[in-house]
Amino acid sequence: MSAIPNCPKCSSEYTYEDGVMFVCPECAHEWNAQSEAENNDDVKVIKDSNGNILQDGDTVSVIKDLKVKGSSSVIKIGTKVKGIRLVDGDHDIDCKIDGFGAMKLKSEFVKKI
User: Fold this and answer.
1) What is the distance between the alpha carbons of residues 108 and 84, in angstroms, rounded to a whole number?
2) Cα distance between residue 108 and residue 76, in whole Å
3) CB atoms within 10 A of CB 22
4) More confident residue, 5 or 66
5) Residue 4: CB atoms within 10 Å
6) Beta sheet of 21-23, edge-to-edge order
7) pLDDT at 33 over 80
8) What residue stretches are annotated with the Protein YjdM C-terminal domain (predicted)?
9) Which pLDDT band holds residue 2 (cuts at 50, 70, 90)?
10) Which of the four pLDDT bands, split at 50, 70 and 90, describes residue 3?
11) Given this model, what pLDDT does residue 1 score?
12) How far apart are the C-alpha atoms of 14 and 5, rounded to whole Å?
């Protein structure tokens, strides 16, 4: 008989098996033990518009004019951004742009230099 694992979300020991899924009655989290093990090994890779892998500290260039939300300014195509930081979220690049200050950009609108 196989041991049923604790809930990966809340660490509850009251999990139970429902078909191929495990269920936690305390937080209602459902997971497949096989896919959960595979997901733990995955590391999120952030790529630019050309498919190059980005890393902290890279220099990138903007590939299209970007409107700045809450302002009438525009970040022009070809603007260089030095020393990027990768973060989790919708806008996955945190950076400082000369003349604009701190910004968050989406990786799909930049290319690695």
Assistant:
1) 14
2) 15
3) 20
4) 66
5) 13
6) 16-18, 21-23, 30-31
7) no
8) 46-112
9) low
10) confident
11) 46
12) 9
SS3 per-residue string spanning the chain: CCCCCCCCCCCCCCCEEECCEEECCCCCCEECHHHHHHHHHCCCCCECCCCCECCCCCCEEECCCEECCCCCCEECCCCEECCCEECCCCCCEEEEECCCEEEEECHHHEEEC
Say if strands 80-81 and 74-75 run parallel, antiparallel, or are unpaired.
unpaired
Cα→Cα distances 23→2, 4, 34, 71, Å: 15, 10, 14, 47
What is the C-alpha R_g of the chain? 21
pTM (2 d.p.): 0.61
Strands in 110-112's sheet, in edge-to-edge order, are 80-81, 60-62, 110-112
User: 16 with 29: CB under 8 angstroms?
Assistant: no
Q: How many residues comprise the chain?
A: 113
